[in-house]
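User: I'm curious whether this sequence folds into something compact or stays loose and floppy. Could you predict its structure so I can see for myself?
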Amino acid sequence: MTRTVLITGAASGIGKSTALGAARRGWAVAALDRDGAGAGLAAAGARALGARHVWWGECDVTREDQLADAFQRAGTALGPVDAVVAGAGLEISAAVSQTSLDTWHRVLEVNLTGTFLTVRTAARALQASGRAGSIVCVSSPSAFVGFAGGSNSAYGASKGGISAFVRAAALDLAPHGIRVNAVVPGATDTPMLYSGLDGDALEAERARLRSAAAQQIPLARMAEPGEIAHAAIWLLTDEASYVTGSHLTCDGGLMAKSANTF
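Assistant: Here's the prediction. I'll summarize afterward.
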């Protein structure tokens, strides 16, 4: 079954890979991001890979008006949206004692409130049209376990909130035929991992993370964004028609592994 999928955070990383994966299936793709130029490049890539129709726009997921406008314009351009990936997010690492209130608010605003607003906008649009649909949010292992390296309180809290929200939203929307699930990506080789780095510093950090992954992750590597995108797309399809309120963990076995060696 073809879909019309709207993706936030589509300019890079998992969001962009999801847009390209949807295009390969011949779906219609709406690519949204605060980085409007990046969203446009993702849309161009989707078109080149065979997307049925493509639309893109600049959108801040913390703005209700911008999300409502984007859904309306995407529906006009592509037809009713029946699949949504709430992929926009950010990570700012700092120990609890060093986390400013502004940082705390910003991370939760984008990750948790942005996900809520995206899902609420999608749910309202689907209910207004009387259509069933599927919504996928992006959680994290930090919703379930503390990162050994620490400095993750704001991000972990935001992702824990997303996981709780997914379960609650799934119950609210199930009577309307709308499924809500989450993917749980482990360490994934995306630009967010290297935010603010370039040149030698970027390559050094990439090498460090790859070495850490080889030692700490059972599959001995980081994920490629496309691997997480495959999981998100599966949750959007009818193959997952009986899956809602659930989490699909794609972490290379990380959470299955105890750090204890005694």
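Summary: The two ends are 50 Å apart (CA to CA). The longest strand covers residues 178-185.
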